[in-house]
Amino acid sequence: MTDLSMPLMRKGPPKLADAVDRITQNPAAHEMRDPFDIGDALTTLALTGEPVTVYPFGQDFAMARIDSVDPEGKVFTLDLAEHGTLPKGKTVFVAALGSNAKVQFELDAAPGAVADRPDLLQFPLPAACLVLNRRAEPRLESPLGMNYGARFSMMGKVFEMPLYDFSRGGVGLRATPEQALELYVGKKLEGVLLELGSSLIVSADLEVRLLRPFRTFLLGPQVQVGCRISNITMQMRQTLERAVGKMQKRR
């Protein structure tokens, strides 16, 4: 279950301009059916306040946000931007998931009322979600048992985080909830040393593009920190590209 105790910067009420198009037939999209993953994805949307575009069958779309998720009760609550009722029947929900993906699911259930909260609608958690990754660069997972990590200083503190994936254009870090308190989407990290194996260190400036809480069996609550490389020397970029190319050949 996502760690709800970690505060994230929640977006304001959604506007029509925030609408996200439905995922049409796309071979790059994949289906997610694990209840844990589905609950985690919807909880992330609730924590960040990401706009959800609601497409009732045969009706104009509406904008909303997920207010809360109850994985044990297998329900979530929806807060419509313009309060009202949704028509019964098939309804498609679409939202951006971070900066590199979007998620879509369909429900064929009438929304239920929420006690003492007439502004909210309750729905069952979907059995499946369609996920479309939109990364510009394919990311490679860091090999197990090797030194892949990031080290940088901020506000007089030294941060060290494992690197779980990387590409020519960005990296994914794994932070503790305490470390993530110092970060927010848009935060710029200067002079980050990226250790890619035992003999390669690349220096780059990063920009945080995604903060996603999750939980692991061994480590407990963790936070995925997706970063875009915003400044790197040509020599360092060529070195990174060679490292990516070499690992792609191995796979």
What are the defining features of this structure?
single chain; Thrombin, subunit H; 3 helices; mainly beta; Pnp Oxidase, Chain A; disordered N terminus; 6-stranded antiparallel beta barrel; 251 residues
**CATH fold topology of the largest domain:** Pnp Oxidase, Chain A
How does CATH name the architecture of the largest domain? Roll
Q: Total domains, how many?
A: 2
Q: What is the overall shape?
A: elongated
Order of helices and strands: EHEEEEEEEEEEEEHEEEH
- The strand order across the widest sheet is 1-9-6-5-2-3-4-8-7
Number of helices: 3
Account of the protein in words:
The protein is mostly beta strands and 251 residues long. It folds into 2 domains: 16-133, Roll (Pnp Oxidase, Chain A), CATH 2.30.110; 140-250, Thrombin, subunit H, CATH 2.40.10.220. The chain has helices at 35-48, 177-180, 234-250, and strands at residues 30-32, 52-56, 62-70, 75-80, 91-96, 101-107, 112-113, 120-124, 129-133, 140-141, 148-154, 157-166, 170-175, 188-196, 201-216, 220-231. Strands 1-9-6-5-2-3-4-8-7 form a 9-stranded antiparallel beta sheet. It has a 6-stranded antiparallel beta barrel with strand order 11-12-13-16-15-14. Strand 3 and strand 4 form a beta hairpin. The radius of gyration is 20 Å and the shape is elongated. The model is unreliable at 1-7 (pLDDT under 50).
